[in-house]
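Researcher: Last one for today. Full complex below.
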Amino acid sequence: MPETKVPPIVHLLYSKGEQIIKEGDYGSSIYKILSGRVRICKGFGKDTATLAILDRGDIFGEMTFFNLGLEPRSASATAMEDVVLEVWHPARLTDEYNNMQPILRYIIQQSLKRLVRMNKIVDELSSKKEAVTELDPRVTQRQYFRKKWDQECTFCPLGQSKSFRLTGKIRDVSLNGVGVEVPYENTKELRHEPGEELVVTMQFTSGKSISLNSRIKSVRRSITLGYLFLGLEFKNMSKEAIREISMFMMF
Amino acid sequence: MQVQIDSFIYEYIVKEEIFESGSTILEEGRSGDWIYILLEGRLKVKKRTVKGMITIDTLREGAIVGEMVMLKNCEGFRTASVVADGRVKLGILDKERLQKEHELLSPQLRSLITALALRLEETTRKASLLALA
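Model: Here's the assembly. Have a good evening.
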């Protein structure tokens, strides 16, 4: 390949605790760590999630490079100790990137898209988990994190005819269950005791409606007067249901 | 649904293969260096966790699968499992040709690409851990 002139390499020093890149800022420099460690994180204050800890030889700032500087910095970088960095100017590399085989560029863009999705999940899961834990310590009873939801649903006992339906309101959902608020008067029709099996039908924002077998894990008085709060655990979820819920949880 | 795959990609497809629903295309931890493009159908990206396999991403037509080994620039193991969600059609890409073109890039650009791949790997691992918490 034709070797173009390499611009002089700049070295920068950062002391412990200093911010190198701030999430949301614009900038296009690429950094290589010559010594010291750097923390990459997303979010601010209490919602900060560490994405990675980088060491000597590692590179960061590559996200903005692959986005061609059109997007702000997707994460912050902070010196964890005294750090020496090599700064690469992106101009020549951008040229090379733009002129490389379209298929390689396509492959890289696909990875980048996936990374953006994964970052978003990490971001959401870490901030939501904290928020929910503060509100309700019982969250630990369920193995996956719960997403707050406010959605009408209908349900009937497993094996019962479809015409017998009760209504409730989903308050939260996780990959393995839902928290549903039901009016006390429902108990005239159904006992609502732990161990009972129900078929819950819920409508997703995508418009898709899904029915899931579930079992009552816990029953307690809801904070809403006149309502019970049921903890339901999903059983035998179909692939479609898992996908729908996962998608819903992600965004 | 058939999506329009650009001709510059078609040029690299050496073979097309059909996989039935539930087939494992890549298995996490196994070695392998085939690179595929998803032509029809959906794929699930799964990670192994202490509580079993969890789905961490869904891929659609046009997605590239198995590229991490090349991008990371090393002999490697599959970093996640990829499973057919319904019947899928995959195109196997000419990895030798891709490899050659990848090697022609400057070391700096290659290390940037490696950084991107490592970041994706690490973030995917993190997301699967958080999904369990």
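Chain A is about 25% helix and 35% strand. The first strand of chain A starts at residue 10 and ends at 14.
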